[in-house]
Amino acid sequence: LTERLQNAFNGLRKKGKVTESDVRDAMREIRLALLEADVNFDVVKKFVKTVREKAVGSEVLDSLTPAQQIVKIVHDELVNVMGDAAVPLNKSEHIPTIIMMVGLQGAGKTTTAGKLAKRLIQDEKARPLMIAADIYRPAAVDQLVTVGQQVGVPVFEMGTDHDPVDIVRQGLAEAAAKKNDYVIIDTAGRLEIDEQLMQELSNIKELAQPNEILLVVDAMTGQVATQVAEGFNERLDITGVVLTKLDGDTRGGAALSIRSVTGKPIKFVGQGEKLDAIDVFYPDRMADRILGMGDMMTLIEKAQQDYDEKQAEDMARKIKENSFDFNDFVEQMDQIQNMGPIEDIMKMIPGMANNPALKNVKMDPKDIDHIKAIVYSMTPKEREDPDLLNPSRRRRIAAGSGRSVQEVNRMIKQFKQSRDMMNKMSKGNFNGMENMFGS
Ligand code: GDP
Ligand code: MG
């Protein structure tokens, strides 16, 4: 998926201005890419239609950065379909909160039960109890017991000779007696959805009245994952989804279609076999993943789209040689102003969207005007050589620009910081990115 989309966007980028037929081409690529990633056909159709309408309808065609805008529209729409924010667990008003894990065999129910228990202990000092209600494979009970030992959580089990509904009933009684605040029920799976399993799960649901029915789905199963989610949701009215095995080179396709087809939120993602490899699901990060935006270079390229190639080369060389000066700084400010709000651009960097450092990144267009006023009050020599700026020159510049000396000092400091930062970035070091725009 990623490669495919990257190619589509690379195609756009090289052309500069985007025509309506470019949008059509890009949309065809996006459509193929999503289908290749096993996104459900109807979901793809709907998705592409929405994006195309938004792209053609907006000022993309005569925009200065058309490719960037299309990427943003696709990205925003992915987030839109997958939900805007992480959705927390449903909690019961009185203990215990009951969580029922359901899903096909091998999806990761037992592992995820352990991961959730561990997380609840860490986050809330919870005292969960797990119930072993998968009686079809002797190993299943043992597996949950082992997982329980690993995370320090008691497991209620009655071997494999009892009816699962009975086991759950007695397990809940045990939890009531021990005042456990969470009960996690591990149920059986099958290789595919069958009526007998669904009946059993319905019975358990009826008895336990769980606050959460979490469907665990293997993200690597693509299209099948969507059908599975649809089937389970129809019968059990699930409350959320856990997408496992995202640590592989899985494409994000399943996330998109499961959410779209069931309307149920993906609450967690599994990222490995270890019992701490679980994360809250962030739609924003998943959109990044689907689009393959992890590459910082994409962003830099984006910033440079408006430059002609020579200008871009000049800039890159200057940054590398650390001869980036105030003229470049102003030029860059203009670039940034043309790209839209900095906060939005920063959010497109994977890991940045939820980075606390981003909270400090705010740039008022007025600030940019002030910065420009300060730069324009410098002599040409000063603009080329920031080291000339001694206190008396700074006072003169402040008077000339109508800004305070403190502001001039702050701006110069910010300039130097961002110059250093870009220099580091050009050498492949992205740490401290948040300082780039001052704070
Ligand atoms: P269940 O049949 O649904 O209970 O599935 P299990 O919990 O037994 O998991 C099946 C296999 O998938 C086991 O080998 C797990 O270690 C593995 N597994 C579960 N979740 C993940 C995950 O997020 N990433 C990876 N790589 N493996 C996982
Ligand atoms: Mg299991």
UniProtKB/TrEMBL annotation:
GO terms for biological process: SRP-dependent cotranslational protein targeting to membrane. GTP binds at residues 103-110, 186-190, 244-247. The keyword Magnesium does not apply. InterPro entries: AAA+_ATPase, P-loop_NTPase, Signal_recog_part_SRP54_M_sf, Signal_recog_particl_SRP54_hlx, Signal_recog_particle_SRP54_M, SRP, SRP54, SRP54_GTPase_dom. Keywords: Cytoplasm, GTP-binding, Hydrolase, Nucleotide-binding, Ribonucleoprotein, RNA-binding, Signal recognition particle. Pfam families: SRP54, SRP54_N, SRP_SPB. GO terms for cellular component: signal recognition particle. Residues 96-292 form the SRP54-type proteins GTP-binding domain. It is found in: Cytoplasm. It catalyses: GTP + H2O = GDP + phosphate + H(+). One of its GO terms (molecular function) is GTPase activity. The keyword DNA-binding does not apply. Residues 1-82 form the Signal recognition particle SRP54 helical bundle domain. It comes from the Bacteria. Residues 95-273 form the AAA+ ATPase domain. SMART domains: AAA, SRP54, SRP54_N. Composed of three domains: the N-terminal N domain, which is responsible for interactions with the ribosome, the central G domain, which binds GTP, and the C-terminal M domain, which binds the RNA and the signal sequence of the RNC. PANTHER family: SIGNAL RECOGNITION PARTICLE 54K PROTEIN SRP54 (PTHR11564), SIGNAL RECOGNITION PARTICLE SUBUNIT SRP54 (PTHR11564:SF5). Part of the signal recognition particle protein translocation system, which is composed of SRP and FtsY. Involved in targeting and insertion of nascent membrane proteins into the cytoplasmic membrane. Binds to the hydrophobic signal sequence of the ribosome-nascent chain (RNC) as it emerges from the ribosomes. The SRP-RNC complex is then targeted to the cytoplasmic membrane where it interacts with the SRP receptor FtsY. Belongs to the GTP-binding SRP family. SRP54 subfamily. This is Signal recognition particle protein. It comes from Lapidilactobacillus dextrinicus DSM 20335. The gene is ffh.
